[in-house]
């Protein structure tokens, strides 16, 4: 064979007089036995022909291998049957972990699997509660459990298989299915992980397990099936030749469960892979009794397609605390069919292009941008540059928890013992070391968390960023959704269901829309010369870039805020140039109209797609321009807003509206007047607005045409796709404002104002000193007031009708009514609205009776919930009291005192708040009431801000600001008003909001608030009026 090839080569060199190349994968390959002879002859042959032809020839250094190449290919000849690379395999494994309940167990398993080859790992006895899919850095974790600390199954799937996952179904806490469509395989692979009942289990439990398993296999019989897990059954060797489900290399004896398993597999035509491949007896058993006496094979991998499997083995040295061994099977990747016309040539010598940032690069970009006048081309040059930089400087995620040297030494020590596991004396030693490893991992995790928390608390005082950094749960997937009441688990179907739902949600509902009003091919609008606007300044661009938040997901272009803020000096002049070109020409980059939608669960059933809020991830470069436009439009739009609207406005707060509502209820109750209040709820408010009405609103409210056209172009060509674990199909956005766009809140408020301008409510509402208060707004949270229920019904009906004209639809099931009088049915569009005794409005509990009592109880409950969510800090014995104090003052105290500016506190309510804080202080320092420590001594140690001091300070200061405000807010009007046509009941009245203020500042306190210095002097007297009494007591 070699001689023949040499002759062929010699003839080719002589005839074609070209440089010869003998190649196999681009190199000279020779066997060790023929190396010298062949290389010598080949070199002599080529050198001789080189002298004749005049060509210089260089041979690659020969590489020693242990076999001859399959064939030699002369240069210039097309290899009709190219050599394929070595066949790659998928590794599927199963393991009974005994428990994976805590995060320490998961960290230990991660470390144990670090050097183990696997693509999919099925897990038995996870002992984790609930059904979840979480995505981590290196893998995807699925869990299914019904009882905490018992049973449970799941999967560990490498992230590179994420795009091939079709569905994950949890049948029970003993049975789960993973369907994956691997490339080049015609059928789907159904991987079934089981945890079977033991021999001692009741017969009914065993029957139920095999019944569920049988139904599952029958359902997926048309797929390639892998059935694996802990079967708690000893199959043993083949007892007769008819047991085709077993290979010739069975191990051990057969148990009662084993016989049932064999019969079950024969019934379903499945084969046990453990018995197919020959292994040593010591490499067959998968379970060992606690005392090391018995070793049996009870964990199996079974399939209906055995011919693709190349090996099944037991991992004997897995460094993990379990008495089970991992079983792993390998099967071949299906080779990709390559067309003979597209055979790839040798590309091993191609170098990878890397991009490094430098001032020279930016100077070149600026020159290219200045040389063109088209803003689209300018942006594409910049985008290409930024994308290349992102690729060259890709951020590598680091592990959240690094194991200490002490832990790693213990793991290595256990590894040495596992290699000698056959010795019984090592079993107890392994158990002791495993216990120490678990404790050490817990200690490492605790140390890391405390250091991170301490760093963030000292730096910014909050814990939000620290907890985000230390978040142990992976990125949660949506495990299933319901379609017409039936659950869907297929990943593709889930994505299609979400895409269909939001396609319908964002579809244009206005039949009169003129689709030809905007050119759908080019994102260009002709700007009239009658709308001059000032050029965008570099300082505006720099301010907008610096205002961008970091650690936020980028849009489809993957240009992050971190990159933009890190290169703000270089980007500012470039973006200023591009933005001004856009203002001049009206051309918009098409990339800005594209967005990815992520789904955030709000509340309610997680399987209902309507309970997810869509958040649009869009280009961060567009957001910079949007913020610049927003800063220019906000003064114009805010001038058009009445005092009833407090949402997204400078100088307005939720406290303004909360105080207004509470004062109305307080004074109507005191003067025995009837009031009816309606809390309006819109269904998908931000996602339902008609685009045409947005443009009409901007025109009517005096927005320059240039800005309107820019926004109009973005929305006219807007497209989105649902981003779950993979990306869905694109669909058009024909209505709604994009949640995530800086302009969206202002656009919504502007349209809402247009609705109310069309309502004739001048004679409706409550008479407040001659002015009519008929509603309040905070973004889409609306509240209506009336004294008569029939008029309130008329108001809601008219609001509903006008809202529907712009695309808003009222959610009548969530729209509630409240009254301090007789409940009279209020009907809107044929639906009777529900009366409630309590309603949470802007985070505060609103009730017609005992409003402050209920609110204080709710605040205390919220405070304790927050306290125990920060248990890791507040109960830690390793963190100092100063850090705990800072955490309490910045995280817990605001939860307890939210809305305290509107409270009318009695002495008993003040005592409630003080007792709550003292209980938290005792919990922080670790004492009990029976220890009989004085509260003053505990306070001297903790030095926490006194809650009553904080409540009084905030109420006094806010009252002064509110009474001096010049916006004409309703909170000031209702504070100065009382119902003159009402009559109070006889006897002592309930405590009013202004009573404690009047006790300090006198009956003319409203006049004193106008004198800021005098009001400031009275603050100390107001705050300390109760403190002295408490000190005496």
Description:
- 41% of the residues lie in helices and 15% in strands.
- Helix 3 (103-112) packs across helix 9, helix 21 runs antiparallel to helix 23 and helix 24 (907-925) packs across helix 25.
- Strands 16-17-3-4-7-6-5-18 form an eight-stranded mixed beta sheet, with no helix packed on it.
- A hairpin with a 6-residue loop joins strand 13 and strand 14 (295-296).
- The longest helix is centred in the middle third of the chain and has 37 residues, at 424-460.
- The chain folds into five domains: 2-65, no CATH class; 89-332, Deoxyribonuclease I, Chain A, CATH 3.60.10; 414-460; 586-844, no CATH class; 851-1032, no CATH class.
- The chain starts with a helix and ends with a helix.
- It is globular and about 105 Å long.
- The chain contains 31 helices and 37 strands.
- With 1033 residues, it is an alpha+beta fold.
Distance N terminus to C terminus?
108 Å
- Biggest sheet strand order reads 16-17-3-4-7-6-5-18
Q: How many strands in all?
A: 37
Radius of gyration: 37 Å
Give the CA-based shape.
Answer: globular
- Unreliable stretches (pLDDT < 50, length at least 5) are 17-40, 44-70, 340-360, 513-522, 524-530, 1028-1033
Secondary-structure-derived class: alpha+beta
Quaternary structure type? single chain
Overall number of structural domains: 5
Relative helix content: 40-55%
Share of residues in strands: 15-25%
Largest sheet: 8 strands, mixed
Number of helices: 31
**What average pLDDT do the residues reach?**
84
Organism: Euphydryas editha
GO molecular function: catalytic activity
Domain Reverse transcriptase: 581-846
Pfam family, one: Exo_endo_phos
């Amino acid at each position: 064979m070699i001689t023949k090839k040499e002759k062929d080569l010699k003839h080719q060199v002589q005839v074609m007089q070209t440089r010869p190349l003998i190649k196999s994968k681009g190199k000279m390959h020779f066997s060790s036995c023929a190396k010298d002879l062949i290389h010598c002859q080949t070199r002599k042959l080529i050198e001789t022909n080189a002298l004749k032809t005049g060509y210089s020839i260089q041979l690659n250094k020969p590489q020693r291998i242990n076999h001859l190449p399959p064939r030699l290919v002369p240069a210039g000849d097309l290899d009709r049957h190219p050599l394929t690379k070595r066949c790659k395999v998928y590794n599927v494994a199963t393991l009974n972990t005994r428990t994976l309940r805590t995060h320490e167990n998961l960290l230990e398993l991660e470390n144990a699997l670090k050097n183990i080859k696997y693509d999919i790992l099925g897990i038995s006895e996870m002992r984790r509660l609930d059904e979840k899919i979480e995505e981590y850095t290196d893998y995807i974790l699925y869990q299914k459990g019904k009882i905490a600390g018992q049973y449970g199954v799941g999967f560990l799937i490498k992230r590179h298989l994420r795009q091939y996952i079709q569905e994950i179904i949890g049948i029970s806490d003993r049975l789960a299915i993973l369907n994956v469509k691997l490339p080049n395989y015609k059928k789907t692979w159904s991987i079934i992980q089981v945890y079977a009942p033991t021999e001692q289990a009741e017969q009914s439990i065993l029957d139920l397990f095999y019944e569920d398993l049988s139904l599952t296999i029958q359902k997926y019989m048309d797929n390639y099936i892998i059935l694996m897990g802990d079967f708690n059954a000893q199959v043993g060797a083949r007892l007769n030749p008819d047991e085709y489900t077993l290979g010739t290399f069975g191990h051990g004896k057969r148990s009662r469960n084993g016989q049932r398993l064999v019969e079950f597999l024969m019934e379903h035509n499945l084969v046990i892979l453990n018995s197919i491949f020959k292994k040593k007896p010591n490499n067959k058993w998968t379970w060992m009794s606690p005392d090391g006496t018995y070793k049996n094979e009870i964990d199996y991998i079974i399939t209906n397609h055995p011919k693709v499997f190349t090996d099944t083995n037991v991992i004997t040295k897995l460094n993990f605390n379990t008495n089970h061994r991992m079983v792993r099977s390998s099967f071949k990747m299906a080779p990709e069919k390559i067309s003979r016309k597209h055979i790839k040539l040798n590309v091993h010598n191609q170098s990878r292009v890397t991009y490094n940032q430098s001032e020279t690069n930016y100077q070149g970009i600026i020159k290219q941008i200045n040389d063109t006048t088209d803003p689209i081309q300018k942006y594409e040059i910049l985008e290409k540059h930024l994308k290349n930089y992102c690729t060259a400087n890709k951020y590598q995620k680091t592990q959240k928890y690094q194991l200490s040297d002490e832990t790693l030494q213990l793991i290595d020590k256990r590894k040495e013992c596992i290699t000698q596991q056959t010795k019984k004396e090592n079993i107890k030693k392994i158990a002791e070391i495993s216990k120490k490893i678990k404790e050490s991992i817990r200690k490492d995790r605790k140390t890391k968390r405390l250091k991170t928390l301490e760093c963030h608390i000292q730096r910014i005082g909050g814990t939000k960023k620290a907890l985000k950094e230390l978040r142990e749960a992976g990125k949660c997937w949506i495990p299933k959704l319901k379609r017409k009441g039936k659950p869907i688990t297929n990943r593709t179907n889930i994505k299609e269901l979400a895409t269909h739902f939001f396609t319908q949600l964002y579809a244009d509902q206005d039949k009169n829309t003129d689709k030809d009003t905007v050119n759908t091919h080019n994102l260009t609008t002709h700007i009239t010369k009658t709308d001059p606007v000032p050029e965008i300044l570099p300082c505006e661009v720099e301010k907008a870039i610096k205002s961008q938040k970091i650690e936020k997901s980028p849009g489809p272009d993957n240009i992050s805020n971190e990159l933009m803020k890190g290169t703000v000096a270089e980007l500012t002049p470039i973006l200023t140039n591009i933005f001004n070109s856009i203002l001049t020409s009206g051309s918009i980059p098409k990339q800005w109209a594209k967005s990815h939608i992520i789904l955030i669960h709000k509340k309610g059933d997680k399987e209902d797609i309507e309970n997810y809020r869509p958040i649009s991830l869009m280009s961060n470069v567009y957001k910079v321009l949007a913020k610049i436009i927003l800063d220019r439009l906000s003064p114009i739009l805010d001038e058009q807003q009445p005092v009833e609207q407090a949402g997204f406005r400078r100088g307005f707060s939720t406290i303004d509206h909360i105080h207004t509502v509470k004062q109305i209820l307080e004074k109507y109750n005191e003067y025995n007047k009837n009031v009816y209040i309606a809390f309006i709820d819109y269904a998908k408010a931000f996602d339902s607005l008609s685009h045409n009405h947005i443009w009409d609103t901007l025109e009517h409210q005096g927005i320059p045409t240039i800005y309107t056209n820019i926004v109009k172009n973005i929305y006219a060509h807007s497209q989105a796709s649902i981003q779950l674990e993979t990306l869905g199909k694109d669909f058009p956005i024909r209505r709604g404002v994009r949640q995530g766009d800086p302009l969206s809140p202002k656009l919504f408020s502007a349209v809402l104002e247009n609705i109310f301008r069309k309502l004739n409510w001048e004679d409706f509402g409550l008479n407040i000193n001659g002015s009519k208060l008929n509603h309040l707004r905070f973004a889409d949270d609306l509240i209506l007031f009336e004294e008569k229920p029939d008029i309130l019904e008329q108001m809601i009906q008219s609001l509903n009708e006008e809202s529907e004209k712009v695309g808003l639809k009222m959610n009548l099931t969530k729209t509630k009514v409240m009254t301090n009088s007789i409940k009279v049915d209020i009907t809107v569009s044929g639906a009777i609205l529900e009366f409630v005794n309590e309603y949470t409005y802007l985070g505060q509990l609103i009730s017609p009776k005992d409003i402050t009592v209920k609110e204080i109880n709710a605040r205390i409950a919220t405070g304790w919930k927050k306290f125990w969510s920060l248990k890791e800090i507040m109960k830690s014995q390793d963190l100092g009291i100063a850090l705990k104090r800072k955490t309490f003052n910045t995280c817990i105290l605001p939860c307890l005192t939210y809305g305290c500016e509107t409270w009318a506190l009695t002495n008993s309510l003040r005592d409630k708040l003080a007792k709550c804080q003292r209980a938290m202080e005792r919990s922080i320092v670790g004492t009990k009431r029976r220890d009989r420590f004085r509260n003053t001594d505990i306070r001297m140690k903790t030095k926490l801000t006194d809650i009553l001091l904080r409540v009084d300070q905030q109420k006094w200061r806010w009252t002064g600001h509110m009474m001096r405000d010049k916006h004409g807010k309703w909170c000031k009007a209702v504070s100065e008003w009382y119902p003159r046509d009402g009559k109070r009941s006889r006897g002592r009245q309930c405590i009013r909001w202004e009573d404690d203020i009047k006790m300090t500042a006198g009956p003319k306190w409203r006049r004193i608030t106008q004198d800021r210095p005098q009001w400031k002097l009275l603050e100390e007297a107001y705050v300390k009026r109760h403190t002295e009494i408490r000190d005496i007591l």
